[in-house]
């Protein structure tokens, strides 16, 4: 299994409507992309000093499935909403 993690920092001038568009798009990806085994995302709970506002965790059976996800039109469409409000991001993948 491959776990893909993305941490997002939003621009200071982002709007609740922009975040809602991102969340709606993320919620649609599990149905749109069958290679996704598990998909969770959410706002920072505020329990740490994290500089990030939002996290996305996706699990795939293989690196090939993760590559299909990355190139999928539905993922790219959501990515356009993310880029519009993103100030910074960090990501990583690991096998488990």
Automatic annotation (TrEMBL):
SMART domains: Dabb. It comes from the Bacteria. Residues 2-94 form the Stress-response A/B barrel domain. Coiled coil: none annotated. Homodimer. PANTHER family: PTHR33178, STRESS-RESPONSE A_B BARREL DOMAIN-CONTAINING PROTEIN (PTHR33178:SF10). This is Dabb family protein.
């Amino acid at each position: 299994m491959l776990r893909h993690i993305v941490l997002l920092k939003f621009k200071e001038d982002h709007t609740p409507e922009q975040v809602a568009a991102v969340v709606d798009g993320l919620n649609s990806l599990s149905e749109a992309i069958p290679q996704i085994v598990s998909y969770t995302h959410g706002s920072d709970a505020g329990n740490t000093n994290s500089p990030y506002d939002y996290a996305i965790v996706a699990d795939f059976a293989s690196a090939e499935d993760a590559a299909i996800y990355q190139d999928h039109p539905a993922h790219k469409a959501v990515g356009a909403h993310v880029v519009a409000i993103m100030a910074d991001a960090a990501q990583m993948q690991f096998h488990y």
